[in-house]
Amino acid sequence: FQVKSENKKTIWNTEEVPEGSEFDDTWDPREKPEYEISFKQHVGTEDVFFGMTGKDPSTACCEDIVIKIKLPETKYSDITLDIQDKVLDLRTPKKKLLLHLPYPVNSKEGRARFLSEEEILEVTLRVSRKIDFINFS
């Protein structure tokens, strides 16, 4: 079994390299911050009282991923955040977080806010899913 490559000098194909591996840096001495991942649904009265849309409490019915990252002794101006479809890359002078997300997200439709009193960065990302019997909008 031999795979043909476009470039003769490459030793592996792009399909063999996992997404997000370009962010991996095992020699970086910065510590990993504490974080928490939660899921958020947009529900209305038709969901709560009547169950008309077929949503349930599972993550398969959630529209957003909310990631809360604890960043003690960090200023907002020191935070560098990069969001890809399946990877969140956060860097500060003292902390570094490379997080492979549980679901693909729309990297263009996210928002982040820094809660300075709690020293927490809250990142909300829209999950991008294919349309199916649960996700029909």
What's the gist of this structure?
The protein has one helix spanning 45-50; strands at 35-40, 64-70, 80-83, 87-91, 96-100, 105-115, 120-127.
Structure commentary:
This protein has 137 residues and is mainly β. It has a domain at 35-127: Sandwich (Immunoglobulin-like), CATH 2.60.40. It has one helix at residues 45-50; strands at residues 35-40, 64-70, 80-83, 87-91, 96-100, 105-115, 120-127. The strands form two sheets. The protein has a four-stranded antiparallel beta sheet with strand order 1-2-7-6, with no helix packed on it. Strand 6 (105-115) and strand 7 form a beta hairpin. The chain is flat.
CA(first)-CA(last) distance: 43 Å
Number of H/I helices = 1
What's the SSE pattern? Answer: EHEEEEEE
Helix/strand-derived category reads: mainly beta
Total strands: the figure is: 7
Low-confidence stretches: none
CATH architecture descriptor name of the domain at 35-127: Sandwich
Portion of residues in beta strands equals 25-35%
Cα-based radius of gyration, to the nearest Å: 19 Å
Strand order of the largest sheet: 1-2-7-6
CATH topology of the domain at 35-127: Immunoglobulin-like
Tertiary shape: flat
Organism: Cinclus mexicanus
Protein name: PIHD3 protein
Biased composition (Acidic residues): 16-26
Family: Belongs to the PIH1 family.
